[in-house]
Design brief:
632 residues, mainly alpha, 29 helices, 75% helix, globular
Length: 632
Amino acid sequence: MSNFLTGNVKPIFGTILTLVALGLAGDVPFYLDVAIFDQQALGIVLGLGLAIVFIAVPARGNATPDRKVPIYDALFALLATVAGIYFAVRYPVLTNEFYYRQTETFIVGIIFIPLVVEALRRTAGLGLVTILAVFLFYGLFADLVPGQLEGRAQAFPNLVSYLGVDLNALFGLPLVIITSIVIGFIFLGQLLLRSGGSEWFTDLAIGLTGRSRGGSAKIAIVASGLFGSISGSAVSNVASTGVLTIPLMRRGGYSPQAAGAFEAVASTGGQIMPPIMGAAAFLMSERLAIGYSEVVIAALLPALLYYVAVFIQADVEAARRKIPPIPRDQMRPLGKVLREGWFFALPFAILVIALFWLNRRPETAALWAAAAVVVVSLVFGYKGRRINWRDILLSLSTTGAIAVDIIVIGAMAGLLIGVIEITGLSFGLTFLLVQVGQGSLFLLLVLTAIVSIVLGMGMPTTAIYLIVATLAAPPLRQLGIDPIAADMFVLYYGLLSMITPPVAIAAFTAANLAGARPMKTALLACRYGWPAFVLPFLFVLSPSLLMQGNVLEVAQAVVTAVAGVWLASAGLGGYLRGQLDLVGRGAFLIAGLALLIPAEGFDGAGWLELGGVVLAVAALLRQVMVARDQPA
């Protein structure tokens, strides 16, 4: 029975889950002239997702491929499946006659909510369960909370009924977006993996950067950044690409800590890299009710600055340690790589064209790109291998299995939003933080950054954004901060939990692969990824860093920001055309930070930026003269 569940039922459920999600994304019911609610499809997806969790993930210990499923987990899986089908069938009646079906809606909620909590514990750990439990208790006893956080308490049956069925709760926007958009991009990533596309990107990164000093780290940065944008999780990106890139960096001459830190930083940065941003771009577009292209344009410059800094740190580290390019026998000529796999650029071209020029929805563009991957692989093949129907079926089932973690967290985010809506907590929390911000905007930003890091610990990108944008961003918008800047601020700091001690789960995962000390790796990752700690404060002060403003302002912000990141990174690394002494490091660091500050950020910022230019020129001239006396 156990082998049947893990070997047959799990892949079948994963395939059905993915097909339902892709059908919803592709408007299949519309073309079949079948009228259904999106929530009916969500019922199937959530039910099957929960069932997969109970089949694959044990109540205690780690999951294994040959796991024996105990009878209670088999019953939980059956209950989740039946509940999902029942909800899909009965949803039209439950939503139209909600107040007349209180007993039925309560039964639906009292089945789904405990199953979600237990699945969340198994997949994400006790941290998120504790957060969810606090909110659920708040929903029951909100009237007893003192001060501004007092809310409208709900009777237990009412709260369960609301959370289980209402559009603003369990089956609300987070689950809608994850099902209709995110799963489509996971499927695209799986097709690329099985058609050789991910291997081609790694070969391309080797061809582009392998000949420069420290090329092994630069390969890791490019490959992890490209794959991380699609993967939706910094940790899974580290686990998948780090297996190849970390040993490559170790063989190249980087220390274990440096290899782990570069991989963690590059994988985390992939989550802020347009056009996909680990699916956060689509969530932000839906939440703020703005065009997807606006989000991508706003995210472009901060992501560019982030990777410029990481590249410079890799180059500086290579110069200090005298790390050469990777050996020629480990490289494939760039021209040969392009000739063998140029066609993998076509699906991404279709994706970008569909999103920006044809204004298609993200889910439609993802389906077009996925179809293009299949077509180009069948027509051309990579290294003599073409995708086949077994690869496609395996991609479908694997997508469903991978997506369950995000589905469960999306369900949790829906429950959080439901409690916030029904109790009025959002008004109290916003009012409290706005009072802090009226006294000191800087203090509010610092508090919001800390809250976002704490809330983001150990979660995938979509879950991080949904939670921090719901809880931490509204006070910033209330104080007049640009909505995109507010959401980008909390997203950045939520993602920084991946490399920030004491949790730093992406850095610790990379440290484990590198055989390095975890805390030292995390601290080094924070140094390499330092722009992500500074930039959010700057684009809150000046939206020009988010490409908002006239052409002259944006151009000036781009030039000075890139120069500032370069100079400050050189100062932190201690190398620019030779070793930097203490005076040189301080001068470059100060000049770089001064150039990063937007001229229109506050009164006197323009003079500060001008002073940074003067100091940078003086420091560069001094270093040229000092470098002449240093040995080559």
